[in-house]
Amino acid sequence: MNYKSIVFREFTQESLQRIKHYRQEEAEQIVSKQLQQQTIYEDDTNKKLHLNKLSKDKSIESNRTPNKELAVGQTLPRVLQHRFPSELIGKPIEEIDSYYRTQYVFVVVDRSHTIFRFSATRACFIFSPFNCFRRLAIRILTHSFFNTIVMLTILSNCIFMTLRNAPEVTEYIFTIIYTFEALIKFIARGFILQKYTFLRDPWNWLDFIVITFAYITFFINLGKVAVLRTFRVLRALKTVAVIPGLKIIVNALIQSFIALRDVAIL
After folding, report:
1. Where is this gene product found (predicted)?
2. In a domain, 127, yes or no
3. Structural domain of residue 85, as residue ranges?
4. pTM of model > 0.85
């Protein structure tokens, strides 16, 4: 894979202008192809020539796919790790995969050179990519210390859930920590409307359910609705979302089960 054309630049207002320029170029190409297609029916003498040209354009467009080595959660290839500027670690940079260059997205690379991708639109209609609060939230979210704290919180919560007479205050403490985690993700990513936002990741659905039912249990008498206590067990599954390697394994298992289901149907 040739990575010589990749340039690492901090995401700025000029970056947004470049995205708009790429989108305009793509729109012009689409219009041009539509005109070519119209010419096919208008010019019978050159019909075969236009058909061949159009088929080539379509084949080129269909071959355009994302680079798997630059996907979310992947580690930056070694060739690029040596070139990556240390001052850009944890900061929004321009898209490094040409497949996404016409999309309003930006990339963040952490200290372990793991790739994160975010929407370049306003998060929750408030926080722009250049907002200081959003940049701070992104810095926190992509830092390894943040994942460590969340992981320790989940493990501690699992231990307290096994205790018969655990203090009630611990439930409030864990819920506050989970709420803070979700708020960081809301500010950094946005909620649901755009790509790469909080609820666009199925693993974050679990976080949302856990927090929602935690607050429900605070206001509903669990003596009458004891079934809500079972939702606390879902917190143990949050470990899958926190550990990247475990997430990959679980995703692979899910895909395998889906494939086995299709085979069984056949």
Report:
1. Membrane
2. no
3. 13-118
4. no
